[in-house]
Design brief:
alpha/beta; five-stranded parallel sheet; single chain; 19% helix; FAD/NAD(P)-binding domain; 411 residues
Length: 411
């Protein structure tokens, strides 16, 4: 069997993987990037709307523009990209991966590994909705691919279940293509997407947003014909007497994303709130020399954050491969009151701290408290869909050594 060697192996060629490969290559090491699609870019390639790059590049770009910018920069460095490749098996301890590609099966040996496999959409089967099994039910990302990449119009009259950002963006996109979007149904009492997307994708196009409401049944003979919706109580149970039916030929699912960790969760520790890999602020996982970055760590709200974390993980993976790892003392990060998603789970004293926090519930105002660092940051109008980011220089982290942990809470 053919055997390849590389300094840093990056698995996944989306925003995190490309930024990681670029950062590692700039450190002077040899980098190999594996991507299951024929080209790199991941979901960016089908996100033709703008709003990307404002932090990472300090200018507004579309998804494909963001991807091409990273790809062009990678092309100027020592990065080998292997497209249409699949990791069949990986030994994370010995950094050995078995790979399948159109060129055949081969083995890759590396000194450091970065996993940037992104996220997958929550499937219809997990929602436990009653009814028939008609065609016309699909995740928002698939609908986006149909319209933006394949040039197919999957619907004439649609309902969107869930108010995640991809669903909101597709509500607008389908409307622009002449599809009647009957409404966006959200079981929570507040929307799940960014505020700007609520305004620009729904309000600007007068698309109804039905909060505290869910789909309880789908009906159709072959193709979807009707969707039954009901209001829900505080326990998300349908309220009797509130059900009604909407005519639609398509149900677009925007019920959330799940970090793609299944192929590695037996070897690497998982944060069961984030549902992704537990990593430090260097991106290193629970296995030495194995790093993770992007939406397989937690679901980020901005691709700029994903790319920034990939950049950091790539640099530290390269340093590890060179035998120049600067890993220092580490302490765990502990969730306090009102904190949901929280990245990272470990603080390494040799790297600056970048905290990403999702609230458990909306707040008109509040304060993020880093207890052991005697740090507070006030905010106004915080919602779970939008991350709060806190950046702190590593020189300010010294008090954590005496405390043995960092507690993050919101009041």
């Amino acid at each position: 069997m053919k055997r390849l060697t590389t300094d840093v192996l990056v698995i996944g060629g989306g925003a995190a993987g490309m930024a990681c490969a670029l950062s590692a290559a700039k450190t002077g090491v040899e980098v190999t990037l594996l991507e299951r699609e024929p080209v790199v870019g991941g979901v960016l390639n089908q996100c033709i709307h703008n709003g990307f790059g404002l932090q990472f590049y300090q200018e507004e770009l579309t998804g494909p523009e963001f991807a091409v910018r990273l790809q062009n920069e990678m092309n100027q460095e020592k990065v080998t990209v292997i497209g249409e490749s699949y990791v069949r098996e990986i030994d994370v301890i010995n950094k050995r991966a078995m790979v399948l590609s159109p060129q055949g099966a081969f083995e890759i040996l590396s000194k450091a590994v970065v996993i940037s496999t992104g996220a997958r959409e929550r499937p219809f089967g997990s929602l436990l909705i009653q009814g028939d099994r008609p065609s016309g039910i699909m995740p928002a990302g698939l609908a986006q691919r149909y319209v933006n990449l394949e040039n197919y119009l999957p619907s004439r009259k649609a309902v969107v279940l869930g108010s995640g950002d991809i669903g909101l963006i597709m509500a607008r996109r389908l409307t622009l293509e002449g599809v009647e979007v009957v409404g966006v149904v959200e079981r929570m009492p507040y929307p799940g997407g960014l505020t700007r997307n609520i305004v620009q994708c729904l309000e600007d196009y007068e698309i109804p947003l039905l909060l505290s409401t869910t789909v309880t049944k789908v009906l159709g003979n072959g193709r979807l014909e009707e969707i039954e919706i009901s209001e829900v109580d505080e326990s998300f149970m349908p309220v009797p007497g509130t059900s009604r039916r909407l005519k639609a030929d398509t149900l677009i699912l925007s019920a959330g994303l799940l970090p793609q960790v299944e192929d590695f969760d037996n070897d690497l520790r998982i944060d069961h709130i984030n549902k992704g890999f537990l990593v430090s602020n260097t991106g290193e996982s629970s296995v030495e020399g194995v790093f993770a970055a992007g939406n397989n760590v937690a679901i980020f709200d901005l691709v700029d954050y994903v790319a920034a974390e990939g950049w950091i993980a790539g640099r530290h993976a390269a340093l590890y491969a060179l035998g120049e790892s600067t890993s220092g003392d580490r302490v765990p990060v502990v969730r306090g009151e009102n904190v949901g998603v929280l990245v990272p789970g470990i603080v390494d004293m040799e790297e600056n701290l970048r905290l990403y926090i999702r609230l458990r519930k909306p707040m008109n105002e509040g304060t993020v408290i880093l207890k052991e660092l005697d740090f507070e940051k006030a905010f106004s109008y915080g919602v779970p869909s939008e991350m709060i980011q806190i950046v702190m220089n590593k020189e300010k982290l010294a008090p954590l050594m005496g405390a043995g942990r960092l507690t993050v809470e919101v009041r």
